[in-house]
């Protein structure tokens, strides 16, 4: 009993310290405390002058465990392990495979079922098909077809969205890199260091506290005044200003 009370007391003290500013909030670790927006660079890792200049494909890969045992239900761990194998291979083959990165999400339904989704971003639909018909995914595909009669409690799905240039945008405030903002791109170097080309992996997030990335229209590569006029906002509207 005493150990439980001590643990609860320590957690309460820690919560109060964070709440009253006596301790740094650990939940804000790696958060970017300003407005920032993702911009996809070109194939060499260089950013465009115009916003949203590249096309992007969004691929949602989901599974659902309709069973009280969840991950411990029959065949569930096998499927989860396959998905983990997918991610590892995709990261290993980037950027040649066209995979920019992804973020995992989970959802708990009212009936208790657990749903998981990998939200990933790609260069093209053709790149997704190259992966889907490759050996790793085909291995999982063949396993599913062999065991499908055993898997009534497991749901699987996917959705693909091809988004043209100037048809996408994003904004994050006080957020750790996530979703499109958590993707990575290879910037090809032009210098030799130690006998190797100085390539580097870069993040797509850019300062959106001012300039064209401050507004939704600007992040879409459009003229912001068109939206101002349409919705009755002036260019100095507080809606578009960063909070002081």
From TrEMBL:
SUPFAM superfamilies: Dimeric alpha+beta barrel. Coiled coil: none annotated. Keywords: Signal. Residues 213-244 are annotated as: Disordered. Residues 228-244 have a biased composition (Basic and acidic residues). InterPro entries: Dimeric_a/b-barrel, Monooxy_af470. It comes from the Eukaryota. This is ABM domain-containing protein. Residues 1-17 form the signal peptide. It comes from Fonsecaea erecta.
């Amino acid at each position: 009993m005493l150990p439980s009370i001590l643990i609860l007391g320590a957690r309460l003290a820690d919560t109060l310290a964070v709440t009253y500013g006596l301790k740094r909030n650990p939940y804000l670790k790696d958060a970017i405390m300003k407005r920032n927006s993702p911009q996809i660079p070109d194939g060499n890792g260089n950013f465009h002058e115009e916003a949203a200049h590249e096309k992007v494909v969004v691929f949602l890969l989901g599974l659902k465990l309709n069973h009280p045992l969840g991950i411990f239900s029959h065949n569930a761990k096998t499927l989860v392990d396959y998905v983990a194998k997918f991610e590892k291979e995709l990261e290993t083959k980037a950027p040649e495979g066209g995979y920019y990165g992804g973020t995992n999400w989970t959802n708990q339904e009212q009936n208790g079922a657990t749903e998981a989704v990998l939200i990933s971003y790609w260069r093209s639909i053709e790149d997704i098909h190259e992966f889907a018909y490759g050996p790793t995914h085909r291995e999982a595909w063949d396993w599913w077809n062999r065991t499908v009669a055993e898997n009534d409690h497991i749901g699987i799905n996917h959705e693909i969205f091809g988004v043209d240039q100037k048809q996408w945008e994003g904004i994050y405030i006080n957020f750790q890199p996530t979703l499109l903002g958590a993707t990575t791109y290879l910037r090809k170097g032009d210098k030799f260091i130690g006998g190797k080309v100085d390539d580097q992996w870069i993040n797509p997030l850019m300062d959106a506290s001012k300039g064209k990335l401050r507004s939704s229209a600007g992040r879409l590569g459009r003229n912001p005044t068109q939206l101002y006029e349409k919705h009755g906002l002036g260019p100095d509207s507080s809606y578009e200003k960063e909070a002081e």
